[in-house]
Write a structure and sequence with these properties.
The chain is α+β, with helices and mostly antiparallel strands. It contains 33 helices and 30 strands. The strands form eight sheets. The chain has an eight-stranded antiparallel β-sheet with strand order 4-1-3-2-28-29-21-30, sandwiched between helices. A six-stranded antiparallel β-sheet has the order 14-13-18-19-17-20, covered by helices on one side. Strands 6-15-5-16 form a four-stranded antiparallel β-sheet, with helices on one face. A hairpin with a 2-residue loop joins strand 8 and strand 9. The chain is elongated, with a radius of gyration of 37 Å. It starts with a helix and ends with a helix.
């Protein structure tokens, strides 16, 4: 076949040129994203029930829904968090679950559960998790000159943002939707003057009936007049603020107007939360990209829209935060740069070892063609350019050049022996087709089991496995089909011999000395092999483990729970004071204070006493001091507050959940008939802080006022229960009684109480009895202080109290201490343990992932053994090749430990992959030894001669694999940080593995076949 191609060089060149042009064309059409588009196996159910306590909501709504949802197929776990007025159920499924079908089944279960829920409960919202639903960035709108006392300015900004900016951005084809928070809306507020009402003999019920009777639209009717027919409308709707003020009320032959009895005004609806940007109140628009659109195009289109509105409306400040496009640009550009640098390093190595420019140029052209053809396969299989696929190409780069180097070196050796150029190209290529195919397959089979990893890790690294596999296959066929033709064209036609490589590259003295040293110290060299196996096991347990590498970021999210029953304005004031104390220019900072209005908010809602702060610093090194400063400030000024830190929500964070607690102790009360007392939980938390190695995160509680209506007093004063209840609602919260239909907008009409203390409101609010007397509200109610969990957490086995532990160094010891602590310090009245305890957290998922990787390594070794046994037609020689893997793994673990990295998914994949790469050197060596022995060379001479012949390709392939990874060590973007442990493990494995392939493996081969060689010589 090779000679056939050599006789048709133009046809070969034209075929590869056509494929190259198509590959270049498809490269510019490939979508660019941060991570692969993966269906996250998670569904969230949101429950809302206004004016419902957490305990009541859990018992009558969330619990029945949770019990129904536990019947959904392939459900792996379910967690619910219930707060006052809102509940959240998170459902996680097994990897591979069709989330579309699961979404339908979840809705069916909720429809079935609605039959058991109170009729006034709204149907829960079901949201399917998706990486594309995460906002690309947040656009903050603030007024450059805003009067804090003037609400109308900000209300106008909110209307402009909702009706103009939001709609204009959503018109862009690249944008899926715009989610908005921080807006304020209008309402018609009526504040009754209770003294005038009582003097006029009117009650709140009279007021509400008068407003309702003046805000009726009976409908329309038609009347016929000859040939014509007219629509007649009867309308008594309230249209304007003055219509409300001028409502007439008749009482005891007196006619009064509403404005004489109450204050009527158009005001902002009482806020449930704020959005702050740069210290000012803002409207925040979260922009979400269409899943199939290119992020670069969307970024350009959005910037044009922002620039236009900035010029037309100079009074509005537009600022962008939480910008994932910057991360994408920086990461993708750095990975492309690393790919180019790796290619350059490889080219320099080729020139150094091959001694001329011709061969490196031929190799370089083959490499470029292979890379471009890979993009063609990316297009056919619908893969994007992301940090995983590009990192896979970088990883493949060092392996892809191996084929070209081996073929070029072998052709050059045949030329040096006096063969003609065409014969050298033919024989040199044909000789290595089988060992190169074996080497390629042994590398590819490592990635096949990786794809079958459970969880999101198996899905996301499909792109990396695909990139490496396609890169190796394409480079293999390029090396045996295109490279011989290019070599023949580039070489002088009458040249009998190839140019000699540099003297350094031809100097075998170091290699010969190494071989002599190893053969003189046979016992010590073999002992290294046996010691490496227990060393691997020891290091595997000693090296720290984590799910993913630590990614340095210049962004930080601080979640603050003030753990006090403060109102929203106090929460905002504390946040602004914190900003003033910790923020320095040119730092970006925003905040969500209280409840937010995002439609796609899959996480739990912030309460009135919570805030989410976002910081972006100029450098990653600024994050740790900032975090420490925030902790110290909160500890100094608000010691009861709880603060936690996490990275901002990105696609990476959503997929890998790096902010999950290391260990979560789940304590379930054995007595299911009553809720656990807050005092027992406080005591348990204090005990854990004193005895456990790591202090748990605080359990937030909510201070309450429990109001009880005295029904005996109601009967005594002849007052209806609903009258008192209505007075309480009006006193403590706005009571919506109708709508003001102001043409294109509807404004709610509410009856509100004044801003007073609880005692003042109870004293000033009067309730009219059936006899016409007025009695203060406090005569009918009793107020007692109370305390309960702010969030009620539950799972498949019911409710539990979660104690979360972070930065755990010894998880087993911590769990043992916590269990012992709970058993000793918590007993019920019968003397038995009052709590059942279970554990969860990232420690368990990390262990499961690493155990899977161990199994994958064993499966990969088995597959490699099968391939090598088929190639060598031997059961023993594959074992010789695979003997070096324990030494290589031990070297990688040692270097990871010395560099301060953990054994994580990336470093483990690096170890697994490199073990398949490095044995390629041993495959080449053993193949050459076998060939020389078949030609009649004695065993020792065959080993030494094969070592000299394969020395340059082995050293070159190792150096190219190492140099392809070097640029990743000196970059700080997310892609490089993610791949850095992988790079370190590859570099360590390649360095040690090359030495083992050159020196140790030949010794093992000699030890196995020396008796066979002695027997053969005796027979001769």
């Amino acid at each position: 076949m090779i000679r056939f191609l050599l006789h048709r060089p133009i046809a070969v060149l034209m075929a590869f040129t056509a494929v190259f042009i198509i590959g270049v064309t498809t490269y510019f059409t490939l979508p660019v994203s941060l991570l692969p588009d993966i269906a996250i196996p998670e569904i969230t159910v949101q429950v809302t029930a206004a004016n419902t306590s957490a305990r009541e909501l859990e018992n009558i709504v969330v619990k029945p829904i949770r019990q129904q949802l536990m019947q959904v197929g392939r459900l792996r776990n379910i967690r619910s968090e219930t707060r006052d007025g809102a509940g959240l159920l998170r459902m996680s499924f097994d990897f591979g679950t069709n989330t579309d079908l699961a979404f339908i089944e979840v809705n069916e279960k909720i429809d079935a559960a609605m039959n058991y829920l109170p009729r006034d409960v709204e149907r829960p919202r079901v949201i399917k998790a998706s990486a594309t639903d995460i906002p690309v960035f947040c656009l903050n709108l603030t007024l450059k000159e805003q009067d804090s006392a003037d609400e109308t300015q900000f209300l106008t900004l909110c209307e402009f943002a909702e009706n103009v900016i939001k709609r204009r951005i959503e018109q862009l084809p690249e944008v899926a939707m715009v989610d908005v928070t921080g807006t304020a809306s209008k309402q018609v507020q009526i504040i009754p003057d209770m003294k005038r009402l009582n003097a006029a003999g009117l009650s709140l019920d009279d007021l509400e009936q008068a407003i309702a009777s003046n805000n009726i639209e009976p409908g329309s009717m038609t009347v016929r007049d000859g040939y014509y027919e007219y629509n007649i409308r009867f309308s008594s709707l309230l249209r304007t603020e003055d219509d409300v003020r001028n409502i007439y009320i008749r009482k005891d032959n007196r006619i009064l107007r509403l404005k004489d009895l109450a204050e009527v005004s158009v005001s902002a609806v009482k806020e449930a939360g704020f959005s702050l940007a740069g210290g000012k109140r803002a409207v925040t628009l979260a922009v979400i990209k269409q899943s199939e659109e290119n992020m670069d195009k969307m970024k350009t289109s959005l910037q044009e829209v922002i620039d236009y509105f900035s010029s037309v409306y100079p009074g509005i400040a537009f600022s962008v935060t939480r910008n994932q496009t910057e991360l994408l640009d920086y990461t993708i550009s750095n990975l492309k740069q690393n790919l180019s640098l790796g290619f350059l390093f490889i080219f320099v190595v080729a020139i150094f070892f091959l001694g001329d420019v011709k061969s490196p140029v031929v190799i370089g052209i083959s490499m470029v063609v292979s890379l471009v053809v890979c993009f063609l396969f990316f297009y056919f299989f619908h893969l994007s350019l992301n940090i995983i696929s590009l990192a896979g190409l970088i990883l493949a780069l060092g392996m892809m050049i191996d084929s070209s180097i081996v073929v070029t070196e072998n052709i050059a050796q045949y030329q040096a022996r006096g063969h003609t150029l065409e014969d050298a190209c033919d024989k040199g290529t044909t000789e290595v087709i089988t060992p190169m195919l074996s080497s390629t397959l042994t590398t590819i089979v490592v990635f096949v089991p990786l794809v079958f990893m459970s969880g999101i890790a198996g899905a996301i690294f499909y792109d990396q496995a695909f990139a490496v596999t396609i890169g190796l296959i394409v480079s293999y066929f390029t090396g045996i089909m295109l490279l011989p033709v290019l070599y023949k064209i580039a070489s002088p036609k009458l040249s009998g011999k190839a140019a000699k490589p540099p003297k350094v590259a031809r100097n075998f003295s170091v290699y010969d000395a190494g071989v002599r040293f190893v053969f003189r110290h046979k016992f010590s060299s073999v002992a290294i092999l046996f010691v490496s196996i227990p060393l691997c096991v020891l290091l595997f347990y000693e090296v720290p483990k984590s799910r993913m590498p630590d990614i340095e970021q210049n962004e930080l999210i601080a979640l603050i729970d003030w753990n006090e029953n403060i109102h929203l304005n106090e929460n905002r004031q504390r946040v602004e004071t914190l900003f003033a104390a910790t923020v320095n220019d040119p730092m970006e900072y925003t905040a969500y204070v209280g409840r937010q209005d995002f439609l796609l908010n899959r996480d739990g809602e912030l309460s009135q006493s919570e805030a989410e702060l976002y910081f972006k610093t100029p450098h990653t090194s600024d994050i740790a001091p900032l975090q420490h400063e925030i902790e110290q400030w909160i500890k100094e000024h608000f010691p009861t507050a709880a603060v936690s830190f996490q990275p901002p929500e990105t696609v990476f964070e959503k997929l890998f959940v790096t902010a999950e607690a290391d260990v979560v102790a789940e304590l379930s009360p054995r007595n299911k008939s009553q809720a656990p007392a807050p005092e027992s939980i406080h005591a348990l938390e204090t005990s854990m802080r004193e005895t456990a190695e790591n202090a748990p995160a605080g359990i937030p509680f909510d201070n309450q006022l429990n109001i009880t209506i005295n029904r005996r007093k109601l009967l005594l004063y002849n007052v209806d229960y609903n009258t008192v209840y209505q007075s309480l609602r009006t006193t403590f919260k706005d009571n919506e009684i109708g709508l003001l239909r102001s043409y294109q907008q509807y404004l709610p009409i509410v009856v509100a109480g004044g801003e007073q203390t609880v005692h003042e409101m109870m004293q000033s609010t009067l309730v009219r009895t059936a006899g016409g007397e007025t009695v203060p509200l406090f005569a009918f109610v009793t107020i007692t202080p109370g305390e309960d969990l702010k969030t009620i957490t539950a799972g498949k086995n019911g409710e539990f109290i979660p104690f979360r532990f972070y930065d755990v160094t010894d998880a087993d010891r911590l769990m043992r201490d916590v269990r012992q602590n709970v058993e000793q310090s918590t007993v019920d009245e019968t003397g038995s343990q009052a709590w059942d305890i279970d554990f969860s957290g990232s420690v368990f998922s990390n262990r499961r992932m690493l155990n899977e990787l161990v199994v994958i390594l064993l499966v990969s070794l088995l597959l490699m053994y099968f391939i090598l046994a088929a190639q060598f037609e031997s059961f023993i020689q594959p074992l010789v090749v695979l003997l070096e893997i324990p030494i290589d793994v031990a070297a990688a673990l040692v270097l990871l430990w010395l560099c301060g990295h953990t054994l994580n998914l990336m470093s483990a994949i690096g170890i697994v992959v490199t073990c398949s790469i490095i044995i390629n050197d041993s495959i080449l060596k053993l193949d050459a030894i076998n060939s020389l022995r078949k030609e009649g060379l004695p065993l020792t001479e065959a080993i030494h001669e094969a070592g000299r012949r394969r020395l340059r390709p082995i050293v070159m392939t190792s150096l190219t694999s190492i140099l392809a990874m070097v640029p990743l060590l000196f970059s700080s973007d997310m892609g490089s940080e993610l791949q850095k442990p992988l790079s370190i493990s590859i570099i360590a494995t390649m360095i040690i593995g090359t030495a083992v392939s050159l020196f140790i493996i030949p010794l093992v081969y000699w030890l196995i076949y020396r008796k066979e060689e002695t027997t053969r010589h005796t027979e001769l």
